[in-house]
Amino acid sequence: MSESVLRIVWIYPDLLSTYGDRGNLLILARRAAIRGIPVETYQVRSDQAMPSTADIYLIGGGEDGPQALASQRLISDGGLHRAVNQGAAVLAICAGYQLFGHSFFAKGEKCPGLGLLDLHSDRGETRAVGELRGDIDPRLGLPPLSGFENHGGRTHLGPGVAPLARVTAGIGNDGQTEGAWHGKILGTYSHGPALARNPAIADLLLRWAIGADSLAPVDDTWPDKLRAERLAAAGA
Question: Can you list the residues of the chain whose pLDDT is less than 50?
Answer without folding.
Answer: none
